[in-house]
Each structure stands twice: as structure tokens, then as C-alpha cells.
Amino acid sequence: xxxxxxxxxxxxxxxxxxxxxxxxxxxxxxxxxxxxxxxxxxxxxxxxxxxxxxxxxxxxxxxxxxxxxxxxxxxxxxxxxxxxxxxxxxxxxxxxxxxxxxxxxxxxxxxxxxxxxxxxxxxxxxxxxxxxxxxxxxxxxxxxxxxxxxxxxxxxxxxxxxxxxxxxxxxxxxxxxxxxxxxxxxxxxxxxxxxxxxxxxxxxxxxxxxxxxxxxxxxxxxxxxxxxxxxxxxxxxxxxxxxxxxxxxxxxxxxxxxxxxxxxxxxxxxxxxxxxxxxxxxxxxxxxxxxxxxxxxx
Length: 298
Known about the structure:
The protein has helices spanning 15-26, 38-48, 56-60, 73-81, 86-89, 104-116, 129-135, 146-159, 171-199, 204-212, 219-230, 239-255, 261-275, 287-294, and strands at residues 7-11, 30-34, 51-52, 65-68, 95-98, 120-123, 126-127, 138-143, 160-167. By secondary structure, it is of the alpha/beta class. It folds into 2 domains: 7-168, 3-Layer(aba) Sandwich (Rossmann fold); 174-294, Orthogonal Bundle (N-(1-d-carboxylethyl)-l-norvaline Dehydrogenase, domain 2).
């Protein structure tokens, strides 16, 4: 069992990571933070009364667990295995927990390299966007050795309300990719439905109410219909990050011979959203592409 004296290095303090790390501090863990932008790590450390480190290697020194929350596979690889990466400063037996969404293939490759150095690894991507990261109610999908999962579970419970063991290393990633692809497809369908309603002169309040209380209900309807109608793209989850996840899901599906045609269509919508300059916006901005195709503004 974990105690409050357990030491955790948290690497990556973006929209999600900063909130997750704050929950670890509130949970009583001894946290050291690192971020590519040093000023952000120093600001977090001052605000939360923890230590910041100038490098990932120094952050990992003498820690029991190293958590990464960065953008993509190459970044995870660099932060963990680079010249001044966490593995260079960690002690043997350290457990690495990657909460980024990078896909199972590169996860297993990184895990194999860490294992050669007598480290352990879990992949633990999260879903729930920034509000749930803020209040510690994320859903976390975990792949790796069951014993490592059991060891890390109390720590993960500080950041998430639902912790799901998905199987061997990489399977947490695969579950996350499929889930996000479904979410992106659903958001696209919600946008198309709103536009059909608008073109047909339907009261959109009535449409959303009926769908929300009928078989058309979904989390994406609840979360994205209003921002789409208001063209409010304040970022909960960046469009460019959703595109990355959908692309990774399609690549993994192709590798095992499983088509995902609706996700492939949605990938093209997200690519067009990037082309319109919405990569940094919330992925609700995909409505801009759909509006262009329909010749209608909500």
C-alpha cells in the first residue's frame, strides 16, 4: 500500500497534467515536477509547495513512480529515454506510468527499452477532459503487469474516479484510442444533425432536448452541442490532439485488418479543421468544416 511519503515525479504540466499533478499533491504524495517550459514548472511548484527540477532525469531521481503526461510518442520517448531523460536519473525498479495517448505500438517499444534497464512500465491514458482532471474524476485505462497495476492503483485513484485494468502493456492505449475515435465520430454526427435541423427550420432547442432524452443521447451531445451552436471553442480537448488519436486508432485498426470507416471520415473533417486554423481550439470547432459543407451557419 502507498503512504503519504511515496515520491512521485510528474513530467508534463499542460492542460491535463497540471490538474492531475495538483490532485497528487492534494492526495499527500511527495511530488517533484518537470516541464519543458521551466517557468511553468517553477510556477506550479511555488503555487503547490512542491519541488521543480531542471531536467526529467533530476525529477526522477529517488522517486518511486515517474508519471508522464505529454503530447505524443516521440515526446514520451524523448522525456523518458533521451540523453537527460527520466530513465537516466531513475533508480532500478522505478515504475514508469505514461498517461499520454500515444498508441500501443510505441508504448510497447518504450516499455521494452525500459525493461532492459530493469524499470517497470504501465500505460495509463486518461479520458474526461480538463474539468474531470480538475476534480479528480478521470477515467483511466491501464495496461501492464497486474502486480504493477495493483501497486499503482491508489495513486491512480487520486487522479481518477474509474480505474480500469485493460490487460498487458499497450492495451490501455488501444482502449483509449477506440474510445476517442468513437467520441470524435459522435461529435461529427451531432454537428451534422444540428445542421440538418437548422436547414429544415427545426427549433434546435427542441431537437437537442428530444435527442438528449431519447435514443440519440450521448456525452458528445451533452458536451458539444451548445459550444457548436455558440461557436465557443474554448479548449477542453484540442482539435489537433483529437486528430492525432483518431489517426492512431486508424493505423492500429489497419495493422490488424479492422476497418473503421466512420472514423476515417471524421479524420478528414478534423484535418480540414486544422486547415482552417482550429488546431489549438476545442474539437467542437469541427462544426466549422461541417457548416462549410452545408452552406449554413448555426
